[in-house]
User: Which sequence fits this backbone?
């Protein structure tokens, strides 16, 4: 089995003024993400999977301590990098496991032609196969946003600003560049995420202090899922 390295993760809603202040401070001491464009951004599109009982949504809404989600993620709406990811959480700690997919494998998963995963040597593909069989996971919601990231190699520190959060509503075609998406957050609100392995150095902690912000249990999947809700409890 793959070894799990859990990381701290904290999320905050911030406004545009806070964003401008923080990004200027962070740019002085941290490195920009090497995969970003000339403006420091890159586009993320994720297709989340859900089982027949909406377990991922229900566990998040009910505050279940231990939970997981599956998603397929691409960058800049291109097929050069396609990843199947499983994100696990225990309280404030997260662990992400991923495996690269070919576009052919992606289309097979979407078509529920999943035998190749059972025969794989990769444990994540095998686990996802058996979860699909047991719990009937299916493509569910597209989550779309622009990310600006700053990194510090020591302790694997990653601070990101996620902007222009949108959902593809009922569509599950992540490679559709003309996909109709809908804003899901009021402007100019965006999401600040802070991730690190063991500890956050004081000099970085001092930079990211924001008096007007509070930590939130933010899930982009849940926010976008509400736009296709079928039950009133999904608003909780």
Assistant:
């Amino acid at each position: 089995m793959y070894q799990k390295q859990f990381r701290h993760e904290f999320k905050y809603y911030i406004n545009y003024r806070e964003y401008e202040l923080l990004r200027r401070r962070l740019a002085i001491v941290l490195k920009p993400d090497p995969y970003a464009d000339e403006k420091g951004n890159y586009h993320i599109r994720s297709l989340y999977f859900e089982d027949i009982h909406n377990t991922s949504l229900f566990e998040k809404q009910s505050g279940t301590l231990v939970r997981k989600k599956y998603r397929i993620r691409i960058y800049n709406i291109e097929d050069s990098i396609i990843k199947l990811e499983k994100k696990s959480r225990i309280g404030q700690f997260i662990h992400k496991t991923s495996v690269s997919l070919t576009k052919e494998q992606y289309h097979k998963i979407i078509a529920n032609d999943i035998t190749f995963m059972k025969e794989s040597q990769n444990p994540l593909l095998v686990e996802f196969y058996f979860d699909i069989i047991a719990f009937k996971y299916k493509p569910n919601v597209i989550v779309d946003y622009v990310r600006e990231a700053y990194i510090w190699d020591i302790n694997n520190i990653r601070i990101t600003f996620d902007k222009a959060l949108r959902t593809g509503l009922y569509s599950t075609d992540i490679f559709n560049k003309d996909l109709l998406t809908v804003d899901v957050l009021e402007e100019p609100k965006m999401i600040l995420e802070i991730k690190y392995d063991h500890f956050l150095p004081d000099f970085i902690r001092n930079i990211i202090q924001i008096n007007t912000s509070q930590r939130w249990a933010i899930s982009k999947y849940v926010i976008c899922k509400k736009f296709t809700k079928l039950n009133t409890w999904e608003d909780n």
In short: The mean pLDDT is 91.
